[in-house]
Amino acid sequence: MEIVRKWIQAIMALLVNGSWSFPYTRTIYQGPLKVLCSPGLNCYSCPAATTYCPIGSLQQLMAGIRIALENGQNFFGLYVIGTMGVLGGVFGRLICGWACPFGLIQELLHKIPSKKFSIPQKLNYIKYGFLLFFVILLPLTVVDKFGYGELWFCKYVCPAGTLEAGLPMLMLKPALGQTIGLIFFNKLAILIGFVIWSVLASRPFCRTTCPLGAFYALFKKLKLVKLRLIEENCTRCEACHSVCPMGVKFNESPENAECISCLKCLDKACKFDAISLEVAGLPLGSKAGAMIHRPKQSNAAL
Amino acid sequence: MSKGSEKKAKRVRVAPFITILFFLIMGIVGIMTGEVRRVLEQAVQVCLSCIGIG
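Output (structure tokens, whole complex):
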């Protein structure tokens, strides 16, 4: 299952970065596919990007809301939020585990042999602050004399933007190098910090900072596809704790907002069919293909 | 299964569809207001903020 997931991650990364003409055009893809939303965090200023980044576009719309209204355009971000909401309603954070290029990069970095550290659970809440303040409130409220806000998350934080857009664009257009300053080096330092942190800990950006992950996490109870704990089968062996890349103790909190449905707990850890995948409450089956709701007597037999 | 838990289970099954429908309608309203064109206009321009210049 893990190999399948890696392949799907790679295919998704290639699909949202499928324009490879940039060595000749020396700029980003500008075709009509960019009306489509990238399900994961993927900077639309990456030269190969074929889709828009929901977090970048949402900030753009929030930052320009005053000017749009003055021009009689009712652009409130409904198309972007609607698309993100549909994705969140169907998959939730499964997207983080299966379709996010930056998640894949962090997973690959974490494979580099080193001493590994855990991430304190309290840091998980920071990403909600980034979503609320850096993506919505600050672009909406802090405006210049023309009434236009800034893209706070893209400009001051996003390491995916630096990696996928900043560095490649500087290589494609060396003239941009003359205009970089403190903001660029601040972002570069953040990127380097997350690269090192990703080697030492599992998915630190997803867990502490990603506003898109925070948005999808809001659907933890509402999403169509989710993992389910079959309590009568669970022996509390805690095997699911050790394999989770997000630090979720699945048998203690099966609806944890951090669960990215990577299925490692189902596939690698649980030997008692206590975890199953379900769609809208209907079980797809557990590891052994067994349908859920075994009779309670099976517990006694263990 | 008690009536209460039966009600809860029913709500859990329906909730994802209501959520998806809600956001689908929101997205359609966004399309009708011409937001798609605005998103495309933004996405085809190099975002200097993303690079760390703007």
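The first helix of chain A runs from residue 2 to 16.
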